[in-house]
Amino acid sequence: MFDVIIIGAGICGASVARFLSQYKLKIAVLEKGSDVCVGTSRSNSATVHSGHDALPGTQKARFNVLGNAMYDQLCQELSVPFKRNGTVIFATNEKDMHSVCDLKKQADINGVPGAEVLSREQLLHLEPGFGARVLGGLFAPTGGIVCPYTLVIHSCYSAVQNGVEFHRNTAVAAVKKDGGAWSVLTDKGRFRCNYIFNCAGVNADIFNNMVSEQHFHITPRKGEHLVLDKSLAPFAKATICQTPTDLPGGGHTKGMGLMPSMDGTLILGCPAYDSIYPEDTATMRGGVDEILNYFRTFWDCFPISSKIPVFPEPKIISSFCGVRAHPDTDDFIVGEAEDAPGFFNAAGIESPGLTAGPAIGKHLAELASDKYGFIRRTDYNPFFYKTKPFREMTEAERQEAFIKDPDYGRLVCRCEQVTLAEIKAAIHAPIGAEDINAVKMRTRAGMGRCQGGFCSPEILRILSKELQRDPLSITQCGGCSKVLLGKVGIC
């Protein structure tokens, strides 16, 4: 019997778990994936939005601004790289300049600090390379970038450190009230608890609608991204997007943009279109073409074009697709269901969900505590410390690390300079990596120019050895994603 069960281990589930771990509660997180952060929280633009885009008076606006303000302290506590690089929304015509002015008004109403409309000359002072078509834009200095999967994984590590249990590969099938408690049926058996926190992403409507008459519907909304090689990173500072556009299915998209990442790559994206499949993250040619066509047309608007005049297609090293949870309310659904006491929703958390997630987690933990009288722990530790990655160490630090552990002397991933010691640490962590993608998310092994072409077979071998499992059982990302199909005899 648990006090709390959290469904889903994305940014909201991880944040709820971490903030609830401040209280004397027995908590379990149920995640159907083979790892934490395998859904929307992993596949996005990695942008910490300022809050200028959200419609005033909405939950999106409220939690966007609250979440943004938390990031400096949050990332310091969790050893997560974070940078306020600022956001620029540029305009190429007078209509777009009117939209920019409207965004400034929204920013002021939402309480976004420092947002201002800039003329072309003022924009050039920030980014000298803006093309001739750019007339001006909005600058939001509180916009930032973060590594989303590192944030979620470290939040989960922090929760484990404070007593939370994580159950991966555990798919929830049904929830219902049973004898005064909640019964949660999964493919690994039945769990019972007093309180449920529904952080199930694109499936959150399913569980809410099982227990509450206040139904809502979530539409999966897909969007592709392209990743550019690190050699281009020095030419872009701020996150740069064109003005937002409305979508036929409701809501709007922030438009195409160029987003620097904390890992030194550049992310391009993303289109937005509805899907009928909640977890279809297959990259589609149409979505990729939409990105390519946009940047071929508007490349000269971005500052990087002053250094590289033609869109550098050969520098594309990867692509990925994310699925957002778009609710028919067109707003976040956050709080306790009125007709289902003890059942709390963090649902419909689409963009700016990565930014808002920590604030939503904090709010739900405090909301439940205030109503149900949770008792605070005196031994709660908000900090999670991580050893500096080998690629960021000085030569002296590398020598010291090697003396303590000779496995630091063996590079497994050449592109990202990831050592055997770091991969072993990722495997044997509290929520350890059990597949190749999980190692990738924790160490960046396989994220470089060759995209795992060199290191993936060796990572598979290391996983097999460290987990004491048959190499044939090791997967790329859990489930049926087998890497090896069988053994062949050698004459």
Question: Can you describe this structure?
Answer:
With 491 residues, the protein is an alpha+beta fold. The chain has 3 domains: 2-41 and 149-217 and 329-372, FAD/NAD(P)-binding domain (3-Layer(bba) Sandwich), CATH 3.50.50.60; 82-145 and 218-323, D-Amino Acid Oxidase, subunit A, domain 2 (D-Amino Acid Oxidase, Chain A, domain 2); 390-473, Arc Repressor Mutant, subunit A, CATH 1.10.10. It contains 12 helices and 24 strands. The chain has helices at 11-20, 59-78, 94-110, 120-126, 148-161, 204-211, 285-298, 353-372, 395-404, 420-427, 436-443, 456-467; strands at residues 2-7, 27-30, 47-48, 82-83, 87-91, 116-119, 136-140, 144-146, 165-167, 172-178, 181-186, 189-198, 218-228, 239-242, 245-246, 252-253, 257-260, 266-269, 273-274, 316-327, 333-336, 343-347, 411-413, 418-419. Strands 5, 6, 7, 13, 14, 17, 18, 19 and 20 form a 9-stranded mixed sheet that branches. Strands 1, 2, 9, 10, 11, 12, 21 and 22 form an 8-stranded mixed sheet that branches. A 3-stranded antiparallel sheet has the order 3-8-4. Strand 17 and strand 18 (266-269) form a beta hairpin. The model has no long low-confidence stretch (mean pLDDT 95).
Count of helical regions: 12
Q: Helical content, roughly?
A: 25-40%
> What's the gyration radius in Å?
23 Å
CATH architecture of the largest domain: 2-Layer Sandwich
Largest sheet: 9 strands, mixed
How many domains? 3
CATH superfamily descriptor of the largest domain = D-Amino Acid Oxidase, subunit A, domain 2
Mean pLDDT: 95
CATH class assignment of the largest domain: Alpha Beta
Taken as a percent bin, the fraction of beta residues is 15-25%
How many β-strand stretches? 24
Please state the structural category. Answer: alpha+beta
Shape: globular
Give the termini separation.
56 Å
Residue stretches low in confidence (pLDDT < 50, at least 5 long) are none
CATH topology of the largest domain: D-Amino Acid Oxidase, Chain A, domain 2
